[in-house]
């Protein structure tokens, strides 16, 4: 395990793969940690340098008091990239990680050579929706809202009681620090990245699971049209296709990275 104090917060990260190769950097969704990328990172690590990390308030990273802004998450990642010495990368972000990816690409157009935006959008949900979720957490805790969240994350065939992986991802969600979860909700609630994302100059690939209940395909399609980017829909996947369909997700990222970073 590796930890670094960057931008005033301790982040847990993994810097793996071929250290002499171009870098792919991954940022994960609300209520998850870097392990959602395990299968993808393992498949790509023979070709690329792979950086994954737990954003503030998640996984093994520090969870400062809320609120957080998307700009805080972007500043954390910029400082982590400086710490590990990555100057050129393809950025891959899922959900709020995709918002972080959009923010980083806008702030660092020379460092971020290309962007993969998975199951995300420049604006996700409404203030009323996010405030209701915060209130529900304050009343019932993360365990009290887990079922409704997991229904949006995963397809019905995956949400089986005999699927041990599903049990594990349920634990990942419910063991997220509540102040980290709520702080990040506040960042999502308050963010509208539409104009900055419209102005992105890098190549962008948009990906979405065909059964995503958090950022549905039509929302991701609208983002793709805003940018003028291609959209790939992954079949039999919900909000986290890198978990449900890792081979399909890896293939899309590999093909895109080869075009914009080289590799193999």
Describe the structure.
This protein has helices at residues 38-44, 70-84, 96-107, 127-153, 164-174, 178-190, 194-198, 217-227, 241-244, 246-261, and strands at 2-6, 9-17, 23-27, 49-53, 89-94, 112-118, 204-209, 231-234. With 264 residues, the protein is of the alpha/beta class. It has 10 helices and 8 strands. It has an 8-stranded mixed sheet with strand order 1-2-4-3-5-6-7-8, with helices on both faces. The protein has a single domain (2-261), classed as Alpha/Beta hydrolase fold, catalytic domain (Rossmann fold).
Helix amount = 40-55%
Shape: globular
Query: What is the tally of beta strands?
Result: 8
| Average pLDDT figure | 97
Structural class: alpha/beta
- CATH 4th-level superfamily: Alpha/Beta hydrolase fold, catalytic domain
- For this structure, what is the CATH class? Alpha Beta
Give the percentage of residues in beta strands: 15-25%
Largest sheet: 8 strands, mixed
Return the CATH topology.
Rossmann fold
End-to-end Cα distance: 27 Å
Order of helices and strands: EEEHEHEHEHHHHEHEHH
Number of helical regions? 10
The tally of domains stands at: 1
User: What Rg is obtained from the alpha carbons, in whole angstroms?
Assistant: 17 Å
Stretches where pLDDT is under 50 for at least 5 consecutive residues are none
Strand order of the largest sheet: 1-2-4-3-5-6-7-8
Architecture per CATH nomenclature, i.e. the level-2 architecture: 3-Layer(aba) Sandwich
């Amino acid at each position: 395990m590796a930890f670094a104090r960057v931008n005033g917060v301790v982040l847990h990260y993994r810097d793996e793969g071929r250290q002499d190769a171009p870098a792919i950097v991954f940022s994960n969704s609300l209520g998850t940690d870097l392990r959602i990328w395990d299968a993808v990172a393992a498949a790509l690590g023979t070709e690329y340098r792979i950086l994954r990390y737990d954003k503030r308030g998640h996984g093994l990273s520090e969870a400062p008091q809320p609120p957080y802004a998307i700009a805080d998450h972007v500043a954390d990642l910029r400082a982590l990239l400086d710490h590990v010495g990555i100057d050129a990368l393809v950025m891959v972000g899922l959900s709020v990680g995709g918002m972080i990816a959009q923010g980083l690409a806008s702030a660092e157009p020379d460092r971020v050579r290309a962007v993969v935006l998975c199951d995300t959008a420049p604006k996700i949900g409404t203030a009323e929706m996010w405030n209701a979720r915060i209130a529900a957490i304050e009343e019932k805790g993360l365990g009290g809202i887990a079922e409704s969240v997991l229904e949006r994350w995963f397809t019905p065939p995956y949400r089986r009681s005999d699927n041990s992986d599903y049990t594990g991802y349920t634990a990942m969600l419910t063991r997220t620090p509540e102040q980290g979860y709520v702080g990040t909700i506040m960042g999502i609630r308050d963010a509208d990245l539409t104009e900055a994302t419209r102005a992105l100059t890098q190549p962008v690939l948009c990906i979405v699971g065909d059964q995503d209940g958090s950022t549905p395909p039509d929302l991701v399609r609208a983002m793709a049209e805003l940018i003028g980017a291609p959209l790939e829909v992954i079949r039999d996947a919900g909000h986290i296709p890198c978990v449900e369909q890792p081979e399909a997700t890896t293939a899309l990222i590999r093909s895109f990275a080869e075009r914009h970073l080289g590799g193999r």
